Amino acid sequence: MKVEEFKKLAEKYTHKKVNSQERLAMDIFFSKMQEANKNVLVPISSEKREKLFYNIQQNLTIKRKRTPLKKYLAMAAAGFTTLLMLGFFTGMFSNNYTTIIAEKGEKKEIKMDDGSVIFLNGNSSITYENNFTEERTVKLQGEAFFKVARDTAHPFTIKSKDLETRVLGTSFNIKSYKDQVPMVSVNTGKVEVIPLKNPEYKVILTKDQQASFKENRKPKISKGDSRDFNAWTRKMIILKNISLEHTAKIIENWYDVNIQFADDSLKQLKITGKFNDEKLSNVLKSLALIKNLKIDSTNKKQIIIRKNPI
User: Fold this and answer.
1) Is the pLDDT of residue 198 over 80?
2) 109: part of which helix (H) or strand (E)?
3) Is 205 helix (H, G, I), strand (E, B) or coil?
4) pLDDT confidence bin for 33, thresholds 50/70/90
């Protein structure tokens, strides 16, 4: 992505006119900027700084007379943010990196140059350097299942939401959505997981072990059939005593919809069930029947879950 393209995208993002893929791309960018530049302003040459300030000023001067103050300030903030981010942006989105995005409602299979295979769930992304066989590091946002080709000379590392996962050759699932507790589940081999904020809580996981990582707490390790945790790669949804709120997040990413609750108390209802490549309408009917709910659709994308008055 070129600088001009990014500036246009930043403007669309500021005015909430981006589509789901563009929003995810910007979220990835902001996440990486925060990770790499905590409490540090992006270094930028004085010449480029003056030029950018001039362009921002010109843009605002033209529109100021017919723009409300609130919108004017938002434009100024967006322009200044672009200025601070630009130096980091040009390095992060250079031709040295590849980013692959799976939007809500889709899944992708990525075959890496080293022979590894990554299955990317909906509303997720991975970023990696193009010389991947030399530096096997992937940055994950969302959820992915990894089948890692063994290479003892080049360990495979995944960085995701305050976690770093290291392997040589194995298969495992990482769920790391920004609004959920991160979880790692191992299918084969051995996996080392390090909470970056609390590295002393490092754990080694083996086949059919799972670990969830709440911030500043020791990871919770459990044992269960690992195939259940990556059932999504086989077009299956498996729910085992999961809250309706968590279930709603799964459905949102799976079918590209937005789910709201008319009553927050419904979020804590526990759901158990299995859906094998079902249509959204069938899943919603089943949930309504199991928990005596009323589920309405205002349109194809908006769903509201209510208590059944009957």
Assistant:
1) yes
2) strand 108-111
3) strand
4) low
Check: CATH 2.60.120.1440 for 97-228?
yes
Lowest mean pLDDT among 17-21, 126-130, 206-210: 17-21
How far CA 92 is from CA of 6, 99, 157, 254, in Å, comes to 12, 10, 18, 29
Give the H or E element holding residue 293. Answer: strand 293-297
Residue-wise pLDDT tens digits, 200-233: 999 999 999 999 999 889 999 999 999 999 999 9
Could you please report the per-residue DSSP string of 54-77? HHHHHHHHHHHTTS-HHHHHHHHH
- Report domain extents, the chain: 3-92, 97-228, 235-307
The whole-angstrom distance between residue 199's C-alpha and the CA centroid of its chain comes to 22
**Predicted TM-score (pTM) above 0.90:** no
- Of 3, 2, 88, the closest CA to residue 42 belongs to 88
Contact 108, 102 (CB under 8 A): yes
7 burial class (0-12, 13-18, 19+ CB within 10 angstroms)? middle
Asked if 20 and 105 touch (Cβ cutoff 8 Å), the reply is no
Angle between helical axes of 69-92 and 20-36 (0-180°, round to 10): 70
How much is the pLDDT for 37? 44
Tens-place pLDDT, residues 276-290: 999 999 999 999 999
CB atoms closer than 10 angstroms to residue 184: 26
> What pLDDT sits at residue 28?
66
Looking at domain 235-307, its CATH class is alpha beta
Residue 182 clears pLDDT 60, i.e. is over it: yes
- Beta carbons of 191 and 205 less than 8 angstroms apart: yes
Q: CA angle, corner 128, sides to 3 and 237, nearest 5?
A: 110
Which residues, 6+ apart, have CB-to-CB distance to 264 below 8 Å?
none
Residue 266 DSSP label: G
